[in-house]
Predict the structure of Deoxyuridine 5'-triphosphate nucleotidohydrolase.
Amino acid sequence: MSSEISPPSTVPVLRVKRLDPDLPLPARAHPGDAGVDLFSTIDLELAPGRRQLVGTGIAVALPVGTVGLIHPRSGLAARAGLSIANTPGTVDAGYRGEIKVCLINLDPDESIAIARGDRIAQLLVQRVELPELVEADELDDTSRGAGGYGSSGGHARLDDAPASGV
Ligand SMILES: O=c1ccn([C@H]2C[C@H](O)[C@@H](COP(=O)(O)OP(=O)(O)OP(=O)(O)O)O2)c(=O)[nH]1
Ligand SMILES: [Mg+2]
């Protein structure tokens, strides 16, 4: 037996404007899902390697201090190679235009057909810090320091490869 996830007692509200009233209001597939699935407003066919900006038919009023993140759907990614060129897309709190998705076909061989009304991506809303940027001449010391880009090792096969990558 599945145990349903109860929403918290105070649920924040996200105001959503439907710009394409013939499409349903986006919704979570299951209670407690992080993502709200977004629809395509158009039919399209994406050839291998091609990308296209696709409307979702909605605009939102995200509370200041939150960000909307547009993520791919994992099923479509695994089955067909459908992804988002700028994943995750960033929707600023002040943005009131239509949310659009820059879909990309990562499959090397097969085209992907999408129909109007298909769920093509998902919107996550997350809290985000909005720090004031203050210029600093010196930064504090840390054990990592400036080490990055694999400085901690662990890629034995790649670490041994010649720098040219051949
Ligand atoms: O997947 C996305 C990403 C962005 N946007 C919208 C909302 C966002 O607030 C705006 C700008 O996005 P971003 O800052 O990532 O793009 P930019 O190239 O920096 O454009 P801008 O100069 O308008 O900030 O475009 C979408 O509709 N979908
Ligand atoms: Mg920007």
About this structure: The radius of gyration is 21 Å. The chain has a mean pLDDT of 92.
